[in-house]
Amino acid sequence: MNTSRLSTAADGLAKDFRQALRRARDLGLQGVEIDARGAFEPARLTQTAMRQLRRWLGDEGIVVSAVVFRTRGGYAEAERLEGRIAATKAALELARAFGADVVLNHVGDIPAHEDPRFAMLVDVLTDIGAWGERVGARLCVAAGPAAPTDLARLVAALPDGALGCDLVTGALLVNGHDPSAAVATLADSIAVVHATDAVAGPFAGRGSAVVLGTGQVDLPDVLGALEERGYRGWIGLEPVDPADARDELADAIAHLRNL
User: Fold this and answer.
1) Does residue 95 carry a pLDDT above 90?
2) Which CATH number covers residue 128?
3) What's the sign of the alpha-carbon dihedral 87, 88, 92, 98?
4) Beta 235-237 vs 6-9: how paired, if at all?
5) Residue 206: pLDDT above 90?
6) pLDDT value for 156
7) Is 22 exposed, middle or buried, given 0-12, 13-18 or 19+ CB atoms closer than 10 A?
């Protein structure tokens, strides 16, 4: 499995973006994720600021792998939906402006096919997908909080390429899903992978995140399944303890490259 495209959240490395880029470079990471709800909120970024940020990225040899945009509600929730759609479109534009092609979010509840909200969800994501195609970026929703079978059903109802999936291995395990089986279920819709580890709890949704390589996720099996499918995208890393993020990331990188 090609592990040359590794990334992590910039704000997990340092609050100062330039310092975060230096730390990413020193760790041997190739990319960082930026959060569109914080300092990178589209409405707050001037063209001058964008040029400066891109210059810093170039200086350190780091690229933006993804824009993170976590909404409070899902795309099948009518309350504040128009604002959610507009903000998602702005995040897609931001991603493209930084050279990234994915925006990461959750999809929220995926209703049953016969539920009227499912048709609304399909309409909303079709609209967002068309906007993403226009600007050159795609919304990718987390598999883990959402069941892989439900996501596959949703993707099948949408135009080709309208929606991508973010395979979050630890979240899949915690929610009672087999991460390796999820690779087969979601197949070509997988656009991003987050290699995380976890220990399952007494029932679905009650497990715990743990340091990569110390939990129950069979990462070699997951990576093998991804390689069989020809996956060549980003692998995101998420440290469990923010206070020990750099050491944990260094260990995670070594662990992945030794598999």
Assistant:
1) yes
2) 3.20.20.150
3) positive
4) parallel
5) no
6) 98
7) middle
- What CA–CA distances, in Å, run from 101 to 32, 133, 187? 13, 10, 19
The count of other CB atoms within 10 Å of the CB of residue 160 is 9
Number of structural domains the chain divides into: 1
Q: Is residue 235 part of a domain?
A: yes
For residue 31, list its beta bridge partners: 7, 63
Give the containing element (helix H, strand E) for 153. helix 148-156
Domain that holds residue 239: 6-258
Classify residue 28 by its DSSP letter. T
Encoded tokens for 157:
């109802």
In a domain, residue 193? The reply is yes
| Phi then psi dihedrals of residue 203, to 5 deg | -150, 165
pLDDT in tens, 120-137: 999 999 999 999 999 999
Is 108 part of any domain?
yes
pLDDT attached to residue 204:
85
153 pLDDT tier (thresholds 50, 70, 90): very high
Determine the average pLDDT of the residues in 37-43: 90
- For residue 198, is it within any domain? yes
Which residue matches tokens 């987050």?
A: 194
